[in-house]
């Protein structure tokens, strides 16, 4: 198994007010299609996100499905997590979305991806839940281009399960490229149309923020809506 793309700059924070370049992230996406960042966000923001996550009544979460809009359907064989869509109404989430906006602009400048906006949700995996191998997007069939997963599970241990397993593009082999441990503060970024991936069975509650940078597939003046 090849190690995930890595640079010395990964462990440092970037974003509004940060001095680090986004070049290493863009370079990894260009060369490898994915990157794992050990700690790209400030600990205080991570803590605030986790507190907000845990403060939300579980009844407000909904079972995650497959597909979008009229193609959306529940499939408990494929995935069993629960989700809560995010907006700027919470200060911590607003700060995170500001960070994501900096990343969006930086990737557009460096990779000319035409990323239009970013949508994200909290993902809650209880004991025994999982997400089978899948793609976040299919070529020509969706507007999700870059996927992100930010982990908020404190004190994760290997026996807790819930690793993200990223596989090579279809036709390039079945051996995993990387297993990403859901350690608190770690983030995976990868091309949505290229890499099948799965979440292994969780043995302890797992918290994360899952998101996608999208291109605009609008026609005329009709803006393509998120999710």
UniProtKB/TrEMBL annotation:
GO terms for biological process: cellular response to hypoxia. It comes from Microbulbifer rhizosphaerae. Signal peptide: none annotated. The keyword Acetylation does not apply. Gene3D superfamilies: q2cbj1_9rhob like domain. SMART domains: P4Hc (SM00702). Its cofactor is L-ascorbate. This is SM-20-related protein. InterPro entries: HIF_prolyl_hydroxylases, Oxoglu/Fe-dep_dioxygenase_dom, Pro_4_hyd_alph, Pro_4_hyd_alph_FE2OG_OXY. GO terms for molecular function: ferrous iron binding; L-ascorbic acid binding; peptidyl-proline dioxygenase activity.
């Amino acid at each position: 198994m090849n190690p995930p793309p890595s640079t010395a700059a990964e462990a440092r924070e970037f974003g509004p007010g940060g001095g680090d370049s986004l070049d290493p992230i863009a370079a990894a996406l260009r060369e490898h299609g994915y990157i794992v960042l050990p700690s790209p966000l400030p600990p205080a923001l991570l803590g605030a996100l986790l507190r907000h996550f845990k403060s939300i009544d579980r009844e407000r979460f909904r079972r995650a499905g497959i597909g979008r809009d009229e193609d959306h359907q529940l499939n408990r064989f494929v995935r069993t997590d629960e989700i809560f869509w995010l907006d700027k109404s919470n200060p911590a989430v607003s700060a995170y979305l500001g960070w994501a906006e900096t990343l969006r602009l930086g990737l557009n400048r460096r990779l000319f991806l035409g990323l239009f906006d970013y949508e994200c949700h909290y993902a809650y995996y209880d004991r025994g839940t999982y997400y089978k191998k899948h793609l976040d997007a299919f070529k020509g069939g969706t507007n999700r281009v870059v996927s992100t997963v930010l982990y908020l599970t404190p004190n994760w241990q290997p026996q807790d399960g819930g690793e993200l397993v990223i596989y090579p593009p279809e036709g390039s082999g079945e051996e995993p490229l990387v297993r990403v441990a859901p350690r608190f503060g770690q983030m995976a970024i990868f091309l949505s149309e290229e890499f099948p991936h799965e979440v292994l069975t969780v043995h302890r509650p797992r918290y994360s923020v899952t998101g996608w940078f999208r291109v605009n597939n609008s026609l005329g003046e009709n803006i393509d809506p998120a999710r």
